[in-house]
Description:
The complex is a heterodimer. Chain A is an alpha/beta fold. Helix content of chain A is 46%, strand content 18%.
Amino acid sequence: xxxxxxxxxxxYYGQFxxxxxxxxLIPALxxxxxxxxxxxxxxxxxxxxLYYLTEYAGRPTPLFFASRLTQLVGGAKIYLKREDxxxxxxxxxxNTLGQVLLTKRIxxxxxxxxxxxxxxGVSTATAAAxxxxxxxxxxxxxxxxxxxxxxxRMKLLGANVEIVKSGSRTLKDAVxxxxxxxxxxxxxTHYIIGSALGPHPFPMIVRDFQSVIGEEVxxxxxxxxxxxxxVIVACVGGGSNAIGIFYxxxxxxxxxxxxxxxxxxxxxxGMHAASISGGNVGVLHGMKSYFLxxxxxxxxxxxxxxxxxxxxxxxxxxAFLKEIGRAKYITATDEEALEGFLLLxxxxxxxxxxxxxxxxxxxxxxxxxxxxxQCVVVNLSGRGxxxxxxxxxxxDTDKDxxxxxxxxxxxxxxx
Amino acid sequence: MIxxxxxxxxxxxxxxxxxxxxxxxxxxxxxTLIESGADIxxxxxxxxxxxxxxxxxxxxHEKAVKDGITPPKVFEITKNIKERYPNxxxxxxxxxxxxxxVGEEKFCKMAKDSGIDGFIVPDLPPEEGKNFKETAxxxxxxxxxxxxxxxxxxxxxxxxxxxxxxxxxxxLTGITGERxxxxxxxxREKLSLxxxxxxKKVAVGFGVSKGEHAKIISQIADGVIVGxxxxxxxxxxxxxxxxxxxQELKSNIEV
Lengths: 415, 255
C-alpha cells in the first residue's frame, strides 16, 4: 500500500468522517485540532505523556504467548496483547491520559465524558483525579444498572456521575447528553470522547493516542517471531482499541486486520450492535459512518451482552478500512463471547472483559484454520472483573446456557 | 417568500413539532400559531437523537418518533398547512440524518412538493452543507445556517455567505429551552459585529420565551424565533395559553 495519509484536511477518511455538529461547537473543534497538531510532535508533550503511560498506567503491556490455548485449539500461535493489565483495567487510559494532558495545554479546567461499560468513565475520572480537574461522566441508566460498581468507582474517584434517562438509556444517549453539556459549557470544558468516533479531530486524536498498542506489538512480535503477525483481531464497538492496534500495520498489507462487532442474539434477529455488518451509512454524533438505523434515518436501539460495544455506530476510519477492503469486519454473538470469556479464563487464567471476549473467540476460530507456524495477535483490550457479577447473574438464571457452554468447552477444547 | 417577509417586517418565527402529541394536535398548534400572529413557521421533524435540544423538545422528538411520525407524515402535515395558509412560509427544521438517509435530492423534492420553503439543519455546518445548499437552491428552497456566540469573524463571513434569506443566530452557548433571561450584553456585542460583516437578515433564537425577550431582540435583530415555550404548551394541548403567548410575543416586537 502507498502511504496512508488519512484523515484528509477536512477530517475525512474517504467518504467517512467530517464535522456534523451545531455551530457552537465548530470553533472548539477547530481550536482542538490546531492545539493538537501543535503539540502532537512537541518533545515536552511526548515526554510527559510517555512518563505517565509508563510510570502511572503501566506501559508497555506484555505480548503474551497463550501456549495452552494455542495447543488446545491446534492451529496458529495465539498471542495476547495485554491491555487488560493497564491501570484501570483497559486500553481506555491511553486515550484519557493523552487527552487530559491536551486539556491542560488548552487551559480548560473541566472535563466531561460519556461511558458505556464504565471503563472510559473510570479511566477519565482517574485521569481527572490525577491532574485535579473537575469531571462529569454521563452514563445511560441501563448501563449504570448493569455496571453499578463502576458508577461507585467513578464517584470514589471524585467524579460527578450523571445518569441519563432519555432514549434507549445506553451509550448513545450518554453521548447525546455529553454533547449537550459540551455545547453549553464549551468555553470551560473539554469533552474526552472515549472512542475513535465523533466529529473530526476526535477520531484522529483517539487513534493517535491508542496507536501505542500497535507500535508496541510491532516491536514485540519482531523480537519474538522475527516477523509481523499474519492476523490481528480486535473487538469493535466505537473501535478505539481496534484502530489502536490496526493503525501502525495499515501499510503492512501482509498483515490481515479483523474487527469483531457485537452480534448480540445474532444479526438475523435485529438485536445486535454490529453497525458495519448490519447497518448502513448515516450521520450522527458529528460523523458520517455506518449506523444501525431505519429507512428514515432514525437510529435504532442496539443489543449486546457487553455494555462497551452497545453503540449503534462505529468510528469513521473503520468504515473506511472496510470500504477499501483493508480490514475485515465479522461478528460474534453474545453466546460466542461468553464462550471466549470462559475459554480464556480456563486455559490461560485470564478473565477477559466481555468486549475483548468477542475478539478472543473469533481469533480462536481463525487460528484453528491456520498453520502452526503462523501467528495471530488478539487485542485483549480489557479485563473481566467488571463483568463477573453480570455473567454470574446470567448463568445463574439460565442454567441451560451454562450447561451448553460447559459442554462446548469440553467437546471443542477438552477443558 | 421568506425574504419578502423579512423585507416587510421583523417576523415572529414559531417552531412546533410535527405530529406531536398527535397529528391533529400539531395541525391545531400550527393553525393557532398562524391565527395568533406567527409570520413564519418552523416545522420540527422528529428525530431519535436531538443533540441540540433541551428537555421540552427532546420529549416531543421522542414521542413523535415512537408514534411513527416519519418524513412523509410530516410532509402531509405541511401540505395541509400550506393549503390553508398559502402565504405563511414553512421552514423544515430537521437534523441531517433523515435528509442524508432519504437522499438530499429526494428529500428536497418531497419538501418542495409539500409546501416547504426552506431548511434549517442544526447539525449541518456550512463546511458540510455545500452540496445540500446547491440541491435545495435548485428547487428554489432556501437554506439558513446558524451562528453562535462562539463563531469568530471568519465563521460569520462563511455562514453569511452560505445563508440564503436569513441567518439564525443562536442566542447563547447551549441547547434549546426556555430561559428567564438571555446574555444580553454579549448578544448585543456579537450582533453588532455580525452587522459590520454582513447585511443579511439575522433572526435570534434559543431561550426566547416571553414578550420582554421579543422586544429586546426586535430592537437589535431582524426576527424573533421561539420554540420550547410553544412546544411545552403544544404538549399540554393548551391552545388558549398558546394563543396568548404568541399574541404577547407578537405585540412586543418593535418594527
